[in-house]
Amino acid sequence: MLSLSHPHPASTGPRHRKPLSTAPQRRRRFSYNIAALILPGGGGGRGSPPNGGKLILPGGGGGGVGGGGSSGMLPRTPPPSSPGQLYQPYHPPPSPLPDTFRNLDLTERLAVLRDRMGRWYEYAPLISSLSREGFTPASIEEATGMSGVEQNRLVVASQVRDSLISDEFPADLIHYFDSYGGPDLLYELRFLNARQRVEAAKHAIDRRLEAKGVRELARSMKDFPQRRGDDGWDAFDRHSAGDCLAYARFRLSREAIANEDRMPELERSLDVVETETARARVELEMERAIRKAAGEEVEEPEADVNARPAVPVVRLIYGEISEASIVLLLPVVRETDGVEAVDLAPRRKKTDADLGIVEVDKGWARWAVLPGWAPVMAVADEAVVIQLADGRVLPWRSAENERVLVVADRKRKEVVDEGIYVLEKGGKLVVERGNKLLEEGIITAAAEVVTVVRPPKDEEDIIVGDEWD
């Protein structure tokens, strides 16, 4: 007798079948990444896709699970700004590497650096690309034999070279730095701004300077603006690379102790000077040095009435106030407010040094926050700040067209010959020299100037390299 085999073992008990469930069965959810959303023109109302409520996926239909028409999921990419435009996802910026090195693998890039294949400014970007991939200067040196100092010099020099490629710098001169000694020359220009780098590079090419000479030139151009008010400074042109270098040597000659040591520096200054006013000032100094060496009595030159007086003129630095251990809150008066506002501005009444609480004798609307510089701290109780819209109204020639704050002491009103004072003329607050006021018969002013504060200056184009070991 034949028997049929069952897939389930026999059971002695009654068998019960599982009743069918009336609930809908749970289906497996599929999710799809939408790379593009195409919205053709025309179609439905506001808030609905123009093509009848269906999302058209690349490589899929419009309805069902495969097409995603009833999934209810929002696309991961934002819709285009207007119908008919294809949404463009983010693309990384183009590679900074030259075309010849862009498709090289890691081993080939290391070989290029190891064998110095190509021009230095062409393979210098390879160093930056390796750094972005996790290489350290030490690991690059181990693989290529290029020291960390050389790596830094090449990277910075290539950035300086790229900054010189502009309308201000002749294209035929850039090839002067293509030789292997070019990085040493360009590296010294890293602390100059874009305009100064152009002038320094032209001067270096014209004079065939070596790295040491370029370093002296760059330092003199960087230091020149900081020497405002020094003797002879106004005779030299700040926009001339030769004048900046000539003034640095001119200043060294004046710092020499022995008179015979002054002449070599003055001769070197005369060799690079470019403007006629600067040349005349150096020649005058040479004549005085020769007369002194001959034993003649030489009168000191009269002070330039347009030169900056001995009043501190400081420029704020971004973040300086936040890093200062002591800050001052001083009342501000506009130049159009008149001398009455200077007297009405509040004065410091009481100070709690431990908690930093300051009380004033009256309310005021405008205040200035300044670092606790020593000259300002000394007059904090009677200090007032005058806001000038144009710094060129200051009574010295080196003033620039920029807003400035003049910190003045209201306690010192008596005019003396060497001082700088705030007073009212023509309904406006002005700053004048004491000797000029005495010549006009004015013996009392509103306040004496303590210091002049200039706004921070952007120097984003300065290239600074890391000093790698």
TrEMBL record:
InterPro entries listed in its UniProt record: RAF1, Raf1_C, Raf1_HTH, Raf1_N
Sorted UniProt keywords: Chaperone, Coiled coil
Origin: domain of life: Eukaryota
Bias type Gly residues, positions: 58-71
Gene behind this protein: LOC100844485
Domain Rubisco accumulation factor 1 helix turn helix: start-end pairs: 106-164
Positions with biased composition (Basic residues): 14-27
Name by which UniProt lists this protein: Rubisco accumulation factor 1 C-terminal domain-containing protein
Domain Rubisco accumulation factor 1 alpha-helical: from-to ranges: 181-285
GO biological process: one example: ribulose bisphosphate carboxylase complex assembly
Domain Rubisco accumulation factor 1 C-terminal: 311-457
Sequence segments annotated as region (Disordered): 1-27, 41-101
Residue ranges the record marks as coiled coil: 272-299
Native source organism of the sequence: Brachypodium distachyon
